[in-house]
Amino acid sequence: MKEAAGEVLEQIRTLLESSVDGAVVLDGERRILYYNPAYQAASGMRGRQLAQAAAEGKHCYEVFPLEICETNCLGCQARDTGRSLRVDEIRARRGSDGEELTLIVSAVPLPGGMIVETYRDVTADVRIQRKYRALLDLERRAKEILEEAVRDKTAELRAANEEIKRTQAQLIHQEKMSSLGRLVAGIAHELNNPINFVYGNVDFLGRYMDDLLALVDMYDKSSEKLNPELRAQLNAKKQEIEFDFLVEDSRKLIRSIRAGAERTAGIVRDLKAFSRTGGGEVSEVDLVMGIETTLNLITPLLKNRITVHRDYQAGVPKVVCHAGHVNQVFMNILTNAAQAITGEGQIWVKVAKDSERDLVRVSVRDTGPGIAPDILEKIFDPFFTTKEVGEGTGLGLAISESIIRAHGGSISCESAPGKGAEFIVALPVRPSPGAALTRREATS
Amino acid sequence: MTTERRVLLVVDDEQLNRDILKRLFYTQFEIIEAPDGLAAQKVLEERPIDVIISDHLMPGMNGAELARVAHKRWSSTVMLLLTGYDDDPLVTTASKEGAIYEVVAKPWQMKPLKEAVARAMAERDRRLAAAG
Hints:
The complex is a heterodimer.
Chain A: H1 2-16, E1 22-26, E2 32-35, H2 37-43, H3 47-55, H4 60-63, H5 74-81, E3 85-93, E4 100-109, E5 115-121, H6 123-221, H7 228-240, H8 243-275, E6 283-285, H9 287-297, H10 299-302, E7 306-312, E8 319-321, H11 323-340, E9 345-353, E10 359-366, H12 373-376, H13 396-406, E11 410-415, E12 421-428
Parallel strand pairs in A: 7-9
Antiparallel strand pairs in A: 1-2, 1-5, 3-4, 4-5, 6-8, 9-10, 10-12, 11-12
Chain B: E1 7-11, H1 15-25, E2 30-34, H2 37-46, E3 51-55, H3 63-73, E4 78-83, H4 89-96, E5 102-105, H5 110-131
Parallel strand pairs in B: 1-2, 1-3, 3-4, 4-5
């Protein structure tokens, strides 16, 4: 048996002598029977020292202690189970010089209770791996930081882009409104004289008609003095031309010509108001007074039908604006509110100073049917109207919007079907230098 | 009040507008027509005019300019301006200086226009009386 063990040992020695891995053969008590040169190198001990320790019958864990020696001895397990074992990356503090090592250790049971343990030193590999992992980590973090920065920048750019788009839309709108204003001013001017021809002359036509008819009446009354043949001829002509109908219808014609001219004149007035909403002189205006005057003017629309609730904040400052134009805005909004309400209803008028900015806010809310979203987005467009033909030019709110814009303020509407509508006008207490109040093209 | 017919100078580049004004006033006043400010100025140089009733927008000299010239040279002649643009700075300035006695909105209505002309004639009397 002992000889057999010796033979095995001899064979193993031949096998392991030149191995790059450290290898040690232990007896059942884990005393060192053999070690190869690589084991000696790994142990960090001098050849003589190690030879002496082995000769003294020292245990492997005394010569080359590993962190698992005390709790989880691989050799013992291999010996007891009769199976080979291997553990990767065992950390060990080398007894000889205290150096920190990382090893791959395997234990193989041999006949006669012997054990072969091999040690591969992977300290350098692990160190490189660790460094590599740290580098990877660093790279990942750098990537994260970069991505975050890119995200932030992208959000910033997106916001800036939105802002540019908004400003651009605003500028396009302003330019559109301004060229539309010029066009409308031109049309209004060109229409003024032709309307005057109709408007100024139709009364003469009526008067001339009356004179002529009076004359015909005189002829009529003296017709019995004519000879019967001539009288019959005249009567025949009267019948042929339906004289009585002509008289009556001519008066109607004149009335409808006058009505048409008056309506056209009204439209031209609106067109002019639309095209020149920034002009005129400004003064300090009490908005509440303007609203009250307007409410008085539209009393016929409200009477016995609509209750007006007033909520006027005390001490609201006067606003520097063009009183006539701003009152026109209140007139538009209040009239719209009253007209929106069929039957009985309520209107709330609120005037308050903005607590943060230097502006006064006027809100007009009604219990009308409200405005559908697709209509709501068009209500400030010039010539957009929901009223019957001839009832509105579709300029009221467009005029209001350009007036308020010329004052450096804003006008908006919140509404939904069945929820009524609220118009909010915000006017700066003092117009900003950019407001178009003093700048005005000399209109002809 | 003189026994002679009073003279109304009607200034408008639109013949049809002048026709309307003639229709409106020929029974009360002698009417003289001019198609623009410069022609009106020539008329003023030739004979006394009681009241000028003028359009504003005309080729050459406009109504507000005519008003200022007339106010300077024939200060007792009274100027009425017919315009749809009563807030034109040229018009408001001339009004403030007293060169325009009244602005009548265009398109005009017969009654307010007749009343304005009557007021202007009365003003003409006052001015002549003040001048002695």
